[in-house]
Amino acid sequence: MTTTPQAVRRASPRTRRKATPAAPDPSAALLPQREPVRLLDPDGTALPPREDYPEPPVETLREMYRRMVVGRRFDVQATALTKQGRLAVYPSARGQEACQVGGVLALRDTDWVFPTYRESMALTARGIDPVEVLTLLRGDWHCGYDPAATRTAPQCTPLATQCVHAAGLAYGESYQGRDTVALAFIGDGATSEGDFHEGINFAAVFKAPVVYLVQNNKYAISVPLSRQTAAPSLAYKGVGYGVPSEQVDGNDPVAVLAVLERAVAHARAGKGPYLIEAHTYRMEPHTNADDQTRYRDADEVEAWRDRDPIARLEAYLRARGVLDDAAVAAVAEEAEAYAAALRRRMDERPTVDPLSLFDHVYAEPTPQLVEQREQVRAELAADQEGDA
Predict the structure, then answer these.
(1) 175, 295, 320, 345: which one is catalytic?
(2) If you placed Cys at 253, which of 190, 313, 346, 369 could pair as Cys (CB 3.0 to 4.6 Å)?
(3) Can you tell me the distance from the alpha carbon of 227 to that of 342, in angstroms, rounded to the nearest whole number?
(4) Catalytic residue status for 286
């Protein structure tokens, strides 16, 4: 007998198949919030507290303020040194102080940092000698500081290659039973590079304890963000790799540190990598060799001055009653002394050996390299005889 559609509709409710409940969306826990996390208004007024991102201790915020002020003074001084010809190049991070210092404060001394060429301020905030930080930008062949002793990788000029290095080190540390976390600083342009995708994918598959902090300063040199991605925000890239992500107001120091602390705790607990997109802005040109007027106008830059992360945190701490004129003046004086010491030490000419150019090229020097080395040695000897 053929069953008609009418007969099916008249069937007893007990014979109807119950609808299967929809399975939970596995991506829900990975997606960032639709709006960047913010705990302070641009004028420094506190927003209602949040359970998901508790405010860091006030003493930590005071220390963050101090390091941000000193860091900016260092950055301004390094820019001046470049204009004086005492540095070959300098990529300023002015305007990104909350990310630079927040990334360092969220870590332990035993954790590792993987910086880009723009993280000089972060490295000084980590306690590395500023002259050693500037050694590479001065034109030397090595990074100046000891990566193993400082647990800080050399500043990375090629875009995104440090993403792979950070994943590998973090996995190696985890494999050996250590609770080390690696933090990789990257820019928005680096998310278009293959090394970013390979690094974060490896970290996700092997649950490497690494945090990727994307400082979205709106321009990859002169290329605007709109030419980098069509995603709602860069934080959404994490879901494709099974990596939880978040976006934060990168000029809100309190929110930046709160989000970073949660991400670092996630990685340290063995839950794998975390991706953070910090919305910020680069106030200075890409480097001293960049003409920023060709791709952005002065009004845009001026509008971001009202979102100054240092002024924002200072206003908040003053309102809390934990920062006053005397404390602000003391930090400013410390920053000036820091800059003066840097100027004085940068006046000292470094001792260099031209023959060191041939070191560490090959484990066993090739005949051609040996020949070139001897040519340079002979030229140096001839110059010395001429001077005599």
Answers:
(1) 295
(2) 313
(3) 39
(4) yes
